[in-house]
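#onboarding

Welcome to the new folks! Below is a worked example of what a typical request in this channel looks like: someone posts a single protein sequence, and someone else replies with the predicted structure as tokens. Don't worry about understanding the tokens yet, we'll cover that in week two.

Example request:
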Amino acid sequence: MEKKSGLKKTYYFISIILCLILMFIFINSSFADEETAFVWSNQAESVKTMQTSTTPLESNESTITDNSLGLECGSACLIEQSTGRVIYDYNMHEQLRPASVTKVMSLLLIMEALDSGRISLTDKVPCTEDAAAMGGSQIWLDVRETLTVDEMIKAICVVSANDCTVAMADYLEGSQEAFVKKMNEKAKELGMNDTVFKNCHGIDEDGHVTSSYDIAIMSRELLEKHPDITKYTTIYMDTLRDGKSSLVNTNKLVRNYSGCTGLKTGSTSLALYNLSASATRDGLSLIAVVMKAPTPAIRFSSAQKLLDYGFNNYQMKSFGSKGDVVQEITVNKGTQKNVEVVLEENVGALISKGQTGEITQTINLEENINAPILEKQKIGEINYELDGKIVASVNLVSKNAVDKINFTTVLKDVMFNWFSLFRVA
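Example response:
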């Protein structure tokens, strides 16, 4: 018994000595290179990925900037949805009346309210006096009735209901004026520099203008950030009020264009015929905008020409998905020795079908960094190049957080290891 007791004392004594030695080593190593150690700051300027940049990329050398497709309209624009790259530009910055394509922005604000939890699809929305008094396209709301948010969105998307748009504006912000203010704030945030909204529905009003480029921007934001909207924009026929009210989509491409995902029509006597049309085929998503077409038929045929041109001449090349592990790097002075570096977002590029050449990637990454590291902290970036030109970039971020090692963690580890050894002995 005395031998065992003496052995215990010896173990405790050795443990204490080792703890003191480790503390000394830790303190010295922690501060010896404090001024010269390089730490990648998570506050470093973010590199915009082609997938997440808010504003679509302006025209480049491969963008058509004339009316080579012979479109009969005042303005047109074609962009790739995920990258925002402009493929076709015909007077795309000319300020024109948007008519009901205005409702793309109204829908964007409604979907943001849904996603943030401010409202739900089952909320009952009353019909205000302003809503009931609306003219133009409508479902004839009555001040004595309510519809759910779900039903309101359906009516706005399918038949461009002005009364439902106003009812939702009043419900969300208390008044049309307050809602329109939010619309203009969002337009500014998205870089829609050609746009001024005067109302939420699109009925002609002096100074209520936008451009085909700006319509493409807000259409992209709606589709990319709120893909559930296509559950409504792809409806061709439906009903409301227990089947008593029939709905037929004003966007005829939903029925007769393969891959069509929406989006919104608009027409008035002054604006003429406008359309933002979206479609997806074989992983390539396009948005075609036509403004001031002379007839409904020309509006749809022009949008179809734009979409056909995009699908016939371009393809989307994927390089990786969000969360894909690129490699593992060493972490100095961390509670774990390594951390996995992953792609921050999906990454890909729009490539011409006739373009040849090998895609190469350049990884800019610190080989090892100092703890602490935050979860999803930027660690570096990857650039993808074709024929010597960068076609896509994406940030590399840490998969998980790594705390900095300190005296407490060292002591806990040492004590745990020694007590474990003692129990085994």
